[in-house]
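Revision sheet: structure tokens.
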Amino acid sequence: MNTKILEEIGLTAGEIKTYLALLRLGSSSTGPISKESGVSRSKVYMILDKLEKKGLTSHVEKNGVIYFQAAEPQKIKDYIRKKREDLEKLDKEIESVLPQFENLQKLAGRVQQVAIYQGLKGMITAHEHIYTKLKRGEEYFYLGVPAFQPEEQHIYWKKDHIRRMREGIIGKLLFNRDTDPKILKNRNSYKGADARYMPPGIKTPAWFCGYKDVTIIGVARENPIVIEIISQEVADSFKAYFEAFWKMSKPFGK
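Predicted:
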């Protein structure tokens, strides 16, 4: 069977194997799915969760056992339609931040380095440059942290805050105001983190991170895109924006 089309619409190799296994098996628990697909049981739960979020699988619990089944193949068209809508939404969001990017371009002669990263791994790579530049007692900031982030990103941030505490680095975080309070409560539970809401009436279409001479600009989405800029002048500009918003914010819970 030619599965190239499934790759082209964005499914991973593991997702394709799992989805096709479910089509062949019908309703099934994870054991047979793992065996039929060749995907390890340690990964199959995560893959099934991703497929369900994409509307391509569903599950039901029977006598304490969870059974999964593939959605009808026509649902693939719904998934493509949803991706198209997401791209249209992203296009509008990009339009709103283009003036900021254009301003940065004017500073191109004073920018030392620009790098673009894609996906969760790319975002992690850009973020973890913090640990190569910051020393104990120094800090970084995040401005406009989005309300929605996939669960795998939340799992990463929780682990990273443990590392940040161990390194003795301080993190100041301004979340968009529609973020679940439980998330801010969690972030504030880590020593050295100060998570707050953005001032009322302010919501950014992109998020920003800054420290030393580094600025990271990210577009919030399931498959994030981040731009890392090495420039003291650009970093100073975004630091000034952050400090202005930080002064207008209040400690969480007050």
